[in-house]
Amino acid sequence: MKNYLAIMMVLATGLSFTSCKKDANSNSDFANRSTSAADYSQSSLPVVAVSGDITTSTTWTAGNVYELSGIVTVKSGATLTIQAGTYIKSTVNTVGGAANGVLVIAKDGAINATGTSTNPIVFTSRNLLDGNASTVGKPGDFGGVILLGNAIINVASRDKLIEGLPDQPQFHYGGTNDTDNRGTFKYVRIEFAGFQLAPNVEVNGLTLGGVGSGTTIDHVQTSYGLDDGFEFFGGNVSPKYLVSLASDDDQFDFDNGYTGSIQYAIAVADAYSTHSGTGSPVTSDSNGLESDNNAPAEDATFSLSPKTHPILSNFSIVGTSAATLSPVITAPGFKYGIRERRGSEVTLNNSLITGYPSGLVFDADASATPSIINNISVHGFTAATTVTTGAYTAAGTNLTSTAAAAPTWGMSQPFYNSGTVNFLAASGTKGAITTGSGNWVSGWTKFTF
After folding, report:
1. Three-state DSSP class for residue 139
2. Which of 224, 245, 272, 248 is nearest to 416 (CA)?
3. Alpha-carbon distance 76 to 357, whole Å?
4. 112, exposed or middle or buried, with CB in 10 Å at 0-12, 13-18, 19+?
5. What CA–CA distance (Å, rounded) separates 121 from 264?
6. Torsion-angle region of residue 63: left (phi > 0), alpha (psi -120 to 50) or beta?
7. Burial level of 411, CB count in 10 A (0-12/13-18/19+)?
8. Can you list the residues of the chain whose pLDDT is less than 70?
């Protein structure tokens, strides 16, 4: 959670946010790595404009393309049903305008978005669905999807405004019901999210605020967003089968006492994407996974429970090549495979980390004893595991680590080596694709951008 240069302007407009300074990769090859309009055939479908609040139960069908204008909020007991194969885009807007193409499921709303492995639901750039076959999508073309629930978060009032949206009741999350159910969200792709609410203030691909264990989330991919792929603010929802591809900031981010379990997840960086950074001069702040305890306090001594402590199993976190290899990554590049800091804890099982300057990093203010590391292979270009004095001190169980000039563990970055997605090979019990999981990414995901 990073508050930076945009704070004065954003406060003036009444927005709450978390942001980081962006430094776009100017490599011209990026356009060739993005989905083109030729990949889609939905441009001939009728377009249904949607705006404002949804207060009665509504169904979006695959026979239409739905165009969201501003913030569309499902509330007042309504359920939004989205049929398999339905496409959703946003209208045109400018930086500094209203949040555009953002779908919010409020604490008193629900969603039933159930795609299939051969017919997923897709949120994507309007430019891919407007009939120009030469058009490519770009980060920020779409807003994002936000689910808000009534589960516990670690603020005294158990109530908080979600980042990036105006301070209105429907945009608050948190409560005391850890079994809260906001519905079903499965076999969904969210592409090119992160519409800029203001300079350096973007929406994540999928944001989950205080979402409870009764909610079903599985088989979701976020790709080429301008902020995080997935961000969890408290709650204990426990998704499975997640893919975060080429997010500008972190692929996964945890805050405000998130305590759920996630199994089978892929986090893949792309050298041709943009990369977030902070400070002056700008240094990288783009991680495979980042975890904080509380915002805005964010410190190891924060006394409210629960502490941020996700249980993460079968993750494959794949960075990119070292800067000395081809292609050279435009500054600021990438930072850590996993970064634990500011009082956060983690249980990490059966996972693979490779392709970042440092693989697994515990800052001095990360919470020590409760963290558990088991059956992990960690690679870093300069350091595999970095543990600052005062943080996590155990060596871990079955921890294999190495520092080398190229990615290892059989997982190389797939977007400039003839399209080979090497990390999809089943690898015993470690990583997202195992001998027991099967190839769960087949059919509904897109890696061949």
Report:
1. coil
2. 272
3. 47
4. middle
5. 20
6. alpha
7. buried
8. 1-34, 93-99, 196-201, 272, 274-284, 295-303, 321-333, 367-369, 386-399, 405-427, 448-449
Residue with tokens 């520092």: 403
Domains in the chain, CATH or no CATH each? 7-424 (2.160.20)
**pLDDT tens by residue, 35-49:** 778 778 787 899 999
CA pair distance 282, 16, nearest whole angstrom: 24
Contacts of 441 (CB under 8 A, 6+ apart): 241, 243, 266, 424, 433, 447
Q: Which residue has the tokens 């049903």?
A: 81
Distances (CA, A) of 306 to 134, 290, 411: 49, 18, 35
Cα(185)–Cα(97) distance, rounded to whole angstroms?
A: 28
Question: pLDDT tens-digit profile of 57-105?
Answer: 999 999 999 999 999 999 999 999 999 999 999 987 654 455 689 999 9
Q: Residue 50's CB: how many other CB atoms inside 10 A?
A: 20
